[in-house]
Amino acid sequence: MSVCVALNHITKAFGTTYAVNDVSLTIESGELFFLLGPSGCGKSTLLRVIAGFYRPDVGRLMFDDLDMINVPPHQRNTGMVFQNYALWPHMTVGENIEYGLQLRKLEKPIRNERIGTVLEMVEMSEFRDRPVNTLSGGQQQRIALARAMVIEPSVLLLDEPLSNLDAALRQNLREEIKEIHRRTKITTIYVTHDQVEAISMADRMAIMKDGVFIQVGTPREIYQHPADSFVASFVGETNFISGNIKDITDGKATIETEVGVLHTESIHHNLTPGQEVSCSIRPETIHINGNTGLNQLTATVGSITYLGRTEEYELRIGDILKLKAIIHNPGTDPVKQGESVSISISPESVVPLPMN
Ligand code: ATP
């Protein structure tokens, strides 16, 4: 049975370093929840607090209505998958998966049945009798996942499970983990610094920095309405144009920037006229020689990178600003390097953010 995981003012310090600093959050039963942030922001520490490997200095941790703080790791019914697989190399695939079931003193026929089910789930049935040290990295990670799943955990904890794998394998395993989650609906907490992984898989995610949550939301909410410039640049690519709010009328702002006036649609922050802001503009929202309307600028085309599905442009505005634009499905007659172009940005794509 999947559980709801509630963190209440969790703090964990190592000496004078606050790895996790007063963090509160409720992860719903059955959610696929991501902790996303740069190296050293405290994601693994928080996961280890949930697993029971670290005791927080302050705070409460609840699985449904059970207080977990004094429950040892092996009694929390969590399954864990690590970046480096952490399998027992001298054992076969079957033995690795069976270990947790033996600890739980399940009868042999039940153990066999469960091992068969999870191996099918990760599409590794024919490898049951192979020593794990003869498997590839991707196969070993599938076995690590099977070993975590076989105990039917209430919470599945994944710590950078795909970081050691190449890009194609990562992509495959993302799909598989998502599908396994969809079928089992186990509450899953997944740590990564890879924003593509988080955006493509998460029901919701928390963006962490220096031991605190900067923003919690769905991938769409976070991508489209980042809380600040750190989130805007960490989750996806973006351009920043700094400016000063001239006016706010009907929730729409007019911003005086270094390259002229920019107009926004509804703003999602508590901003006031006169305030310094940083306008986040995603590269894919910049149109070259396209539609007209508000927010027209003139730019010179710098470098051009053709990537098949997309084409990337470096655009220079005067001597002061470089913007990146991404065009999808590029045509056969692109603009040329050095050409002067008009660019337009629709008001809903200009996202003014408070200065950090
Ligand atoms: P990464 O993605 O690099 O694994 P992370 O976001 O998971 O990073 P943590 O491993 O949780 O970050 O570390 C958070 C902070 O706590 C870092 O400054 C780290 O150096 C420190 N830290 C973590 N574990 C310990 C420990 N056992 N002893 C001392 N300091 C630690």
Given as residue ranges, the uncertain stretches (5+ residues, pLDDT < 50) are none
CATH topology of the largest domain, by name, is: Rossmann fold
Spell the H/E element sequence: EEEHEEEHHHEHEHEEHHEEEEEEEEEE
| CATH C-level of the largest domain | Alpha Beta
* Helicity range: 10-25%
Name the CATH homologous superfamily of the largest domain. Answer: P-loop containing nucleotide triphosphate hydrolases
End-to-end separation in angstroms reads: 42 Å
Strand arrangement within the widest β-sheet reads 6-7-8-3-9-10
How would you describe this structure in keywords?
binds adenosine-5'-triphosphate; Rossmann fold; 20 strands; 5-stranded antiparallel beta sheet; alpha+beta; 6-stranded mixed beta sheet; 8 helices; OB fold (Dihydrolipoamide Acetyltransferase, E2P)
Can you walk me through this structure?
The protein has about 350 residues and is of the alpha+beta class. The mean pLDDT is about 95. It folds into two domains: about 5-230, P-loop containing nucleotide triphosphate hydrolases (Rossmann fold, 3-Layer(aba) Sandwich), CATH 3.40.50.300; about 235-355, Nucleic acid-binding proteins (OB fold (Dihydrolipoamide Acetyltransferase, E2P), Beta Barrel). The strands form four sheets. Strands 6-7-8-3-9-10 form a six-stranded mixed sheet, sandwiched between helices. The protein has a five-stranded antiparallel sheet with strand order 13-12-11-14-20. A five-stranded antiparallel sheet has the order 15-19-16-17-18, with no helix packed on it. Helix 2 runs parallel beside helix 4 and helix 3 (about 110-120) packs across helix 4 (about 135-150). It has helices at about 45-50, 95-105, 110-120, 135-150, 165-185, 195-200, 220-225, 230-235, and strands at about 5-15, 15-25, 30-35, 60-65, 65, 80, 155-160, 185-190, 205-210, 210-215, 240-250, 250-255, 260-265, 275-280, 285-290, 295-305, 310-315, 320-330, 340-345, 350-355. It contains eight helices and 20 strands. The longest helix has 18 residues, at about 165-185.
